[in-house]
Amino acid sequence: MQLPEDIQGFVGMLVREIQYLKKIVEEQNIRITELEKENLLLKSELADYKTKKNSRNSSKPPSSDFGNIKKTQSLKKSSGKKVGGQKGHKGSSLKMVSNPDTTIKHEPSYCKSCGNDLSLITSKFIDRRQVFDIPPIKPVVVEHQIFSKACTCGCVTQSAFEKGVSAPVSYGNNVQALIAYMNVRQYLPYKRMEELLQSVFGLSICQGSIKNIMDKMAGRLEPTYEIIRQTVASSPVAGADETGVNINGDNYWAWTFQTDIATFIDIHFKRGFEAIETIMTEGFENTILVTDCWSSYFKTNAKSHQLCTAHILRELQYHDERFKNQTWSSRLAKLIRLALRIRKEDRVTTNNINRIKHYFNKLCNDLIDSSAKKLITLQNRLIKYKDYLFLFLENILVPPDNNASERAIRNFKVKQKVSGFFKTEQGAKNYAIIRSVCDTAIKNKQNPLKALQAATLV
Fold it and tell me: What is the DSSP letter of 162?
């Protein structure tokens, strides 16, 4: 039966309207899906913002915390010991000497009651006190004179100046060593050093002269510097780290390679594997390298690697705070701390090592909620380097963390905070050379200033 024309028109209009509405619904569904994805992304970014990284849960330096970390928050767990010095701890304090340089006797000259003269009466010793002080410091000027003598044979022989006495007026070895020590070890900039030398030592040395002395000191130390590099390269275990260095507005990198007895620091304009190849040309074929997870370290020809557990524990702490609906990060942190305790308490056995590795493999196979993408990334990274996490249990020479390397390289950051930046690449290189010698001397229980003084005699 054919519908009247007006009804057909109405039905046609309804069909078109329905199709239009369907199209709108489809477009809205697509938009809703996009908004849901965007909402999840924004929620994730907001959660990242709320869970801030600091020195306790990441590799950020303590100086970036600005007091945001509560005093009670720490990765270290309570040892159960009382606060303060422990029983048996040997304290240190200022002690009297048996032979003082000067003795001043304070004897009464008259009676405080009647005023009688007491100068002829023998006094009785009651007590003594000593005051340690520094006398006024002034430079000692040594004049070197040379002479000639005429022999009866007619030959005239002239004496020569000592080595190092090369100019009409110059600064001695002790002054040069002190300048290098104050600049590198004590972080003093040239301008403040100029003031200190004048105010305390009565020496007028301009910043240009200080710069020349630093250049000369670095040149004298280069043979020692190379010996330190070779010592680290041939060590069975070495740590490595790197940090950015501002050289006149350009970003360079300070690299350190260090052991228990030697610290080597160098400057390179790159952070990648090319820098390691250039600095340590012989590689680490016989060396276990202790580092963080920076990929360049794993490209080098090393005997093996040990991941820094301190880095990983900080990362796990962050993920524990960031993704509260999972326990994976806390369980791995607990396992690492157990391994560290076993090492510290000298309970390393084959059985304990196998137990640790077995549980770690289980954690590697655990499924993590897909919303914790950053934690999944960490899991994948640890799976990739799983042979390098607990090597410190199998080799007693291998430290479980890379803290020594971080301490070695942190000095560049402290220097920059004090001075702002290095003006030239050579200035940064000088700092690296002299710092390497100072830190190596300290590791060998030597006085760093005396080590620099010895270098000026070469």
Answer: P
351 and 445 housed in the same domain? no
Instruction: Let me know whether 302 and 282 are in one domain.
Output: yes
Residue type, 117: D
Q: Are residues 273 and 371 in the same domain?
A: yes
Task: Examine the domain organization and report whether 376 and 243 are in the same domain.
Answer: yes
For the record, the structure tokens of 67 come out as 């007091």
How far is residue 294's CA from residue 272's CA, in Å, rounded to a whole number? 9
Indicate the pLDDT class of residue 65, thresholds 50, 70 and 90: low
pLDDT tens-digit profile of 221-277? 999 999 999 999 999 999 999 999 999 999 999 999 999 999 999 999 999 999 999
**What sign for the dihedral angle of Cα 277, 279, 282, 283?**
negative
Q: Which residues contact 411 (CB under 8 A, 6 or more apart)?
A: 187, 435, 439
Q: How many CB atoms lie within 10 A of CB 254?
A: 25
**Statement to judge: residues 183 and 302 lie in one domain:** no
> pLDDT for 125-171, tens place per residue?
999 999 999 999 899 999 999 999 999 999 999 999 988 888 899 99
Please indicate, yes or no, if residue 107 is contained in any of the structural domains: no
Distance of CA 246 to the CA centre of its chain: 16
Tell me the DSSP string of 262-312: -EEEEEES--SHHHHHHHSTTTEEEEEEEE-S-GGGGTS-EEEEEE-HHHH
- What is the C-alpha end-to-end distance of the chain, expressed in Å? 118
Residue showing tokens 């050093």? 193
For the beta carbon of residue 130, count every other beta carbon within 10 angstroms: 10
Is residue 410 in a domain? no
Residue 6 lies in a domain: no
310 and 372 together in one domain: yes
* Residue among 319, 282, 286, 292 nearest 304 (CA): 286
68, 54 contact by CB (below 8 A):
yes
Using DSSP, state whether 252 is helix, strand or coil.
strand
What residue type is 129 in one-letter code? R
Structural domain for 357, as ranges: 237-262+269-405
Gyration radius (Cα) of the chain, Å: 35
d(CA 53, CA 320): 12
Q: Please tell me the number of Cα atoms within 13 Å of 238 on its side-chain side.
A: 28
DSSP for 58-115?
A: SS--GGGSTT-S-TT--SSPP-SPPSSPPTT---------SS-S--------B-TTT-
* Distance separating alpha carbons of residues 61 and 417, to the nearest angstrom: 12
The number of beta carbons lying within 10 Å of the beta carbon of residue 431 is: 25
Q: Are 389 and 307 in contact (CB under 8 A)?
A: yes
165, 144 in Cβ contact below 8 A?
A: yes
Do residues 331 and 363 make contact, with C-beta atoms less than 8 angstroms apart? yes
